[in-house]
Design goal:
The chain is 46% helix and 17% strand. With 729 residues, it is α/β, with parallel strands linked by helices. The strands form 5 sheets. Strands 2-1-3-24-23-4-15-22-20-21 form a 10-stranded mixed β-sheet, with helices on both faces. Strands 5, 10, 13 and 14 form a 4-stranded mixed β-sheet that branches.
């Protein structure tokens, strides 16, 4: 086993790895540190799922499963880059690409009928959405801006959009009938096995059985009313029209891979209601599934002039939509995974409440977030900035986060226990002794789900919060709503632990709305706070506050302290990765910023030094920090525009500053001696290297694929400097 595992992923982060990983391996080897890889890309996961369809030399090991075992050990030291959390359109596209490359994979069955098709669909369904993170996150989350990154952001404040008190931008959520309103929650006194059944007029259907929970698990159940959702969406479309704003839907169809695509589909149907009323049967015959988005729908009806004309007329009669790409006509409703709430809402808030419309101009927006569980966070943020104006990054404090996420905690672990109701009836979760744990009356089309959080991760989360507050000495808030069923159960864990450890006076407990305002007030004063949250809010807040403070969440330090002693070091968000790849393919410029990878690398090396008593690794880690500071201080982060320095240039400068720091340090003479000629070679060849990197830009780049790139072609694109390659090896 390598000392450090560096994950192979997808899109822009993986392209950056083609340039950066050889540098890491060169420098680490000098200290006797081995850096290996495991492939958890979408393509690799598809291939490993269907070995029986592939030739022997095409088969892919199940690296995700191997890492899933590793992270449960004390030896784990994993640098985890952001991977694709696939929507159905992305999954289908990846399968088609692999088929064109000669992999005899079965087609994705849109509507499986035979047992074989159902079996294939079941395998593909395991790959949808966030299939990776729940496997690897065997610990809770410690996310914060590295001091060097925060200091740089304050010294070089990014542009913020202007907020005005008369802005029409608002957040709209359901006032009832949603997951928030219908939630029930109980903590199990003993280990239990449960089943979920639906009782209707025609009998009882077992939806899921054999669900096991250890003692102390908090088990939730809830549902969203389809009728209430439809009424809500109809009203919001009408209100958007009346207000003269953009209509936008903000979901997380990647992480909530069962429930949110269904909700997304309801929005597509609501927006095109007259078309579905008139052509519903014909579109069904064409294979239209609104859950796959407007883009897939338009592709399927392309040859039907009557349907296409009615769609165009309907869209023209509706309020304008928030756009993903106004130049290409890609709307908010085109692809479920295109608008991810934790990236889209902070970007809109940072822009002064403005979203891009179909005419290519910015406008106020109705931000539709159907479920009211976390919508108040964004609603309160919008209200705060309307009242107080934009945040000043030059003086703002910071919001750190301690997040409960271990062992598939809360909603993000609900995929296997989420169901769209086939008929009206009663859903019950029943324990092995016959006890009815949860019970809900539902209608056909309602979305019912159950989630859980185990005792050990909850207690670990609280103790991590205590440790972080002690280290920082700043304000610390548990974002828990005593009036929400699940949160009340968590509070029953939190308070006794705080009291037992004598630190109850150092923590506050607030509902998300109140905690949002308190945190914004705190950082506006230039002070710091720690947000101690559940799994979803961990995801949302570690984009919201970094995007406001730093302009991006990709620059966050993200440490997962694995519960069995290992370390998982994450490198930031990948939401903008598709656009980066598109630009590289068109003009060979990659604007992906590897700052998250730099930060994770430094933490990983320091962790290795502590865990293995490897002082050479510590020297490497300290030098990584110096190199990261050099990148920031000297302005060598990637530019957005072709012809200017990009990701590959930043890696050259990182290698140079890293070598300089290692050559100059006095803690390890052998490393200093080894890296002195490396540093000299990188410095003396600066002009040649920069020239070779610049010459690679401006023309189309052939990667040999999108989801499954050709390694040789990718290396040629991402390592175009022969001079640098000779130095690095």
């Amino acid at each position: 086993m390598s000392d450090i595992i560096y994950t192979k992923v997808d899109e822009a982060p993986e392209l950056a790895s083609a340039s950066f990983l050889p540098i890491i391996q060169k420098f680490a080897a000098a200290a006797g540190v081995s850096v290996g890889t495991k492939d958890i890309s979408l393509a690799a996961r598809i291939l490993s799922t269907f070995p029986e369809h592939l030739k022997e030399d095409q088969r892919q090991s199940d690296d995700l499963a191997e890492l899933g075992l590793l992270v449960k050990t004390a030896d784990a030291n994993v640098i985890k880059l952001p991977n694709i959390s696939a929507s159905v359109p992305q999954l289908v596209a990846a399968v088609k690409e692999l088929q064109t490359q000669g992999f005899a994979l079965p087609d994705y069955p849109e509507a499986p009928k035979t047992d074989d098709e159902k079996a294939v669909r079941a395998k593909y369904d395991t790959l949808k959405g966030s299939a990776v993170n729940p496997v690897l996150r065997e610990g809770n989350s410690d996310r914060r801006a590295a001091k060097a990154v925060k200091s740089f952001a304050q010294s070089n404040p990014h542009r913020m959009g202007e907020w005005t008190g008369d802005s029409k931008t608002k957040v709209s959520a359901m006032s009832g009938g949603d997951f928030f309103a219908n939630e029930t929650s109980k903590t199990l006194a003993a280990e239990a096995t449960a089943k979920i059944v639906l009782t209707t007029d025609t009998g009882e259907t077992v939806l899921k059985e054999g669900i096991t929970y250890p003692a102390g698990t908090v088990v939730d159940a809830t549902f969203m009313s389809a009728a209430a959702l439809q009424a809500f969406l109809k009203n919001e479309i009408e209100e958007t029209e009346a207000d003269g704003t953009l209509f936008s839907l903000h979901m997380k169809a990647t992480m909530m891979k069962v429930s949110d695509p269904i909700i997304f589909g309801h929005a597509v149907k609501a927006f095109l209601a007259p078309v579905f009323e008139k052509h519903g049967d014909a579109m069904a015959d064409l294979g239209v599934n609104p859950n796959s988005g407007l883009g897939d729908l338009l592709a399927r009806v392309e040859g039907n002039a009557a349907i296409k004309a009615d769609i165009d007329a309907c869209i023209a009669s509706r309020p304008p939509m928030y756009m993903v790409d106004s130049d290409k006509g890609i709307t908010n409703l085109h692809v479920p995974s295109d608008v991810i709430i934790d990236a889209s809402m902070p970007a809109l808030i940072r822009a002064g409440g403005k979203g891009w419309g179909p005419d290519g101009t910015e406008s106020d927006t109705n931000c539709v977030i159907p479920d009211n569980s976390y919508a108040p966070v964004y609603d309160e943020s919008v209200k705060f900035f309307k009242e107080n104006g934009k945040l000043n990054p030059a003086t703002a404090g910071t919001v750190q986060n301690v997040g409960l996420m271990a062992q598939k905690a809360e909603e993000y672990g609900s995929h296997p226990t989420t169901f769209e109701m086939p008929a009206a009836g009663t859903v019950k979760m029943i324990l092995q002794d016959g006890t009815v744990l949860h019970e809900h009356a539902v209608e056909a089309g309602d979305i019912w789900r159950s989630a859980s959080a185990r005792q050990a991760p909850i207690e670990d989360w609280v103790n991590l919060a205590i440790s972080r507050q002690k280290a920082e000495g700043c304000r610390a808030i548990f974002w828990l709503d005593a009036d929400r069923a699940h949160d009340a159960e968590l509070i029953a864990y939190v308070k006794p632990i705080l009291e037992t450890q004598g630190v109850a006076d150092k923590f506050e407990i607030m509902a998300p709305r109140e905690a949002t305002r308190a945190s914004l007030e705190t950082i506006t004063k230039g002070e710091n706070t720690i947000a101690i949250t559940g799994n979803v809010l961990r995801d949302y807040l570690t984009d919201l506050f970094p995007i406001l403070e730093l302009a991006t969440s990709a620059k966050m330090l993200s440490i997962v302290k694995l519960m069995n002693g290992g370390g998982l070091f994450e490198t930031g968000a990948g939401g903008s990765a598709p656009k980066h790849v598109q630009q590289l393919q068109e003009e060979s410029h990659l604007r992906w910023d590897s700052l998250g990878e730099f930060c994770a690398l430094g933490e990983s090396l320091t962790f290795l030094a502590d865990a293995k008593n490897n002082e050479k690794a510590r020297v490497l880690g300290n030098a990584v920090d110096a190199a990261t500071q050099g990148i920031l201080d000297n302005g060598h982060s990637p530019s957005r525009k072709v012809g200017e320095p990009d990701n590959r240039d930043s890696h050259y400068w990182f290698a140079r500053y890293w070598a300089d720091a290692l050559a100059a340090q006095s803690d390890d003479a052998d490393l200093a001696t080894y890296f002195k000629p490396v540093a000299e070679a990188l410095a003396s060849n600066e002009a040649q290297i920069i020239s070779e990197l610049a010459a690679a830009q401006g023309s189309a780049a052939d990667l040999g694929g999108y989801f499954h790139t050709d390694p040789a072609k990718t290396a040629k694109v991402m390592r175009p400097s022969e001079t640098l390659n000779r130095i690095i090896g």
